């Protein structure tokens, strides 16, 4: 069974631009969560989607948004990029009926 | 609020020595606890999880962790370190369905 796939792996953007990151969960998994990892703040929860509905949300500004499609694939969007948005963005999938998450390799975003 | 604290941001041991990574949790309800490992430029890999079935949990790669309610601890151990164990290790607690709160991480270095 294929694991969680995140694309792209690396991304370079400039301040003020917007970016969209993609996550394909493990086949059959209906829950997708997103996390931001930075050296200063560590791993922080962004949001979680289950069956196309956002179930949980972390403490991030509205510039961070996401969505989930009917095939459980998810996208995360960050608008008006700031230097501080440079981070590794990790996606995790779960069956939704089991309290366990499987992570992808992440997308490393650099904002210049 | 549920949280985890990892004692020691950096641990160094000799190859073949005991590995002990410390994690204390704060939770008002029986917690779901996890240990994840992250190798350079990769995502998080699940080592083991505690879900109240047994206090001693065995994971992959020879790691295990013991849940001690009286000490609010969930320390990770491995009897004999291998060079391939060098990585960053994260303890996490599930605070809601598919929402994890992570510790700050412990970087494990193995000396030959």
Distance between the termini of chain B: 41 Å
Chain pair with largest interface:
A-B, 25 and 24 residues
Oligomer: heterodimer
Rg result of chain A: 13 Å
Q: Output the structural class of chain A.
A: mainly beta
- What kind of sheet is the major sheet of chain B? 6 strands, mixed
Shape of chain B: globular
The number of helices of chain A is 0
Enumerate the spans of chain B where pLDDT stays under 50 for 5 or more consecutive residues.
Answer: none
Q: Secondary-structure element sequence of chain A?
A: EEEEEEEEEEE
Q: Quick check: average pLDDT of chain A?
A: 94
Q: Cα distance, first to last residue of chain A?
A: 37 Å
Summed over residues and divided by their number, the pLDDT of chain B gives a mean of 92
Cα gyration radius of chain B (Å): 13 Å
What is the strand tally of chain B? 11
Number of helices of chain B: 0
In helices, the fraction of residues of chain B equals under 10%
Form type of chain A: globular
Order of helices and strands of chain B: EEEEEEEEEEE
Description:
Chain A has strands at 5-7, 10-13, 19-24, 31-38, 42-50, 53-57, 64-68, 74-78, 87-94, 102-103, 107-111. With 112 residues, chain A is mainly beta. In chain A, the strands form two sheets. In chain A, strands 2, 4, 5, 6, 9, 10 and 11 form a seven-stranded mixed sheet that branches. A four-stranded antiparallel sheet of chain A has the order 1-3-8-7, with no helix packed on it. With 112 residues, chain B is an all-beta fold. In chain B, strands 2, 4, 5, 9, 10 and 11 form a six-stranded mixed sheet that branches. In chain B, strands 1-3-8-7-6 form a five-stranded antiparallel sheet, with no helix packed on it. The radius of gyration of chain B is 13 Å and the shape is globular. Chains A and B meet through strand 4, strand 5, strand 9 and strand 10 of A and strand 5, strand 9 and strand 10 of B.
